[in-house]
Amino acid sequence: MMRVFRAALCLLLFLSAGGAAAQTATCSHCGKPILGRGYRLSDGRTVCEAHLEAALPRCKVCEQAMSGAYRLVGERETPVCDTCMEKYPHCWVCGEPVPPKRGRHLKDGRYLCNIDRKTAIFSPHAAGRLFDQARREVVRSLGPALVAPVGVEKVLLVDTEGMARAAADMEHEGKSPSGLTRIKVSESGGKRRHHPPTVFLLSGMPREEFLTVAAHEYGHVWHSQAHPDYFHCSRRLREGFAEWVAYKVLVKMGREGQLKKLLSGKSDSDYSEGLRRVLALEKSVGAPGVLKYVVRNNDL
């Protein structure tokens, strides 16, 4: 998310201390009447020329005062000037510029700012532990019915190149994802057997986002084992349900930031429209009704 702002809207001239304008216009910084040249900022404040620079917003990257257009970047709405936005690579999580020595450059080409790198997951052990936490949170949020009969074989932490290879192997639709679940099913003598699935999770995700994606992937694990004909379900049903599972976990845990991000909608309509339809379904039949619906139907 990025919004564009302009710091200074107009130049004002106050001609004399005795004029009406001079009597009513005071500098919001020093509190004194403005004589001569003053400025009205986009937030409505009026400042004298001497304190214009002190009143202007400053770029978080270069720390220069911004008198023209600037951006509020990411969920933190960090103020950044156009020069820094164009000059430096951007953090793949929040979109903020990452100058040299003030972030981390990953081998697959991504960058992390200093804030997001603090909680980014790079340890396979941590990835497995967090996936298990996400599984427990799903069951806590939706009940014991969400315990998958067949557990996960392994959780693999991969970079964007590894995720792209996994997506290609599974003929995944859409852009390279943050998580994938490889479902394994065999049939013998007319009976279907579920084998332990493999979950791929993208390295470098901040902890909260990692938990959200892990909950989504666990939704696929359960759904694939509960539905008698999962591979013939529409992508909208599969992804919409998995997003709903993550949504329920975020509500239970009170993760407002991740909820806002989830509800803002992905560019992939099967995720956003699927979630919207499952939420609408929940309003009419409740969470237990949703669980019954998604194992008896192939589309939303």
Radius of gyration: 26 Å
- CATH topology of the largest domain: the name is Collagenase (Catalytic Domain)
* SSE pattern, N- to C-terminal: EEHEEHEEHEEHHEHEEHHHH
Summarize the amount of helix as a percent range.
40-55%
Number of domains: 3
For the biggest sheet, the summary is:
3 strands, antiparallel
For this entry, give a set of tags.
10 helices; 41% helix; single chain; Collagenase (Catalytic Domain); 11 strands; 3 domains; 300 residues; elongated; 3-stranded antiparallel beta sheet; alpha+beta
Explain this structure.
The protein is of the alpha+beta class and 300 residues long. The protein folds into 3 domains: 1-56, no CATH class; 58-118, no CATH class; 124-296, Collagenase (Catalytic Domain) (3-Layer(aba) Sandwich). The chain is 41% helix and 21% strand. The strands form 4 sheets. It has a 3-stranded antiparallel beta sheet. A 3-stranded antiparallel beta sheet has the order 2-3-4, with no helix packed on it. The chain is elongated.
